[in-house]
Amino acid sequence: TLLLFPSENAVEVSELDLSQYRQLVVLDCSWNCWRGMMMREPVLSQYRAVKIKQQRSSFWRPLPKRRRADTKMEPLCTIEAIYHFYRELIHEKNGKYEGEVDNLMYIFATQFSKLRKLAPDQRGGRLRAHWGE
């Protein structure tokens, strides 16, 4: 089992013997919550940590003016992290990527767009691009 998480001991997809792994665990939480999740679920620390190459978020919040001290990564939403992991995995296995998992982002982008158009925020405007603020 792999844990998609950019810890200090995480390896990149290209460094893995992919035949040894059948499952991927992804934490669906913010950077503020991951330590608590790791403490509540100690089994997570037993999994091999894997990280993706640094990516720029297409949909989530922009990089804050002041980066968090514990990371140099730009925050990605969970589906973006999963998408980029599988892109790297497929490229590593096949030597190329031909859009095999692009539908993941299409579905997310479609839903994101609909929510922004339909869901007013508390001030009577549209849903803000920076969720959770």
* Helix fraction bin: 25-40%
Oligomer: single chain
Strand content bin: 5-15%
What global shape is seen?
flat
Number of helices: 3
Order of helices and strands: EEEHEHH
In short:
The chain has 133 residues and is an alpha/beta fold.
Comma- or semicolon-separated keywords:
single chain, 133 residues, alpha/beta, four-stranded parallel beta sheet, 3 helices, 4 strands
Structural commentary:
The structure is a single chain. With 133 residues, this protein is an alpha/beta fold. It is built from 3 helices and 4 strands. Strands 2-4-1-3 form a 4-stranded parallel beta sheet. It starts with a strand and ends in a 15-residue tail after the last helix.
Topology (SSEs and partners):
Blueprint: E1 2-4, E2 11-12, E3 24-26, H1 34-40, E4 48-51, H2 78-94, H3 102-118
Parallel strand pairs: 1-3, 1-4, 2-4
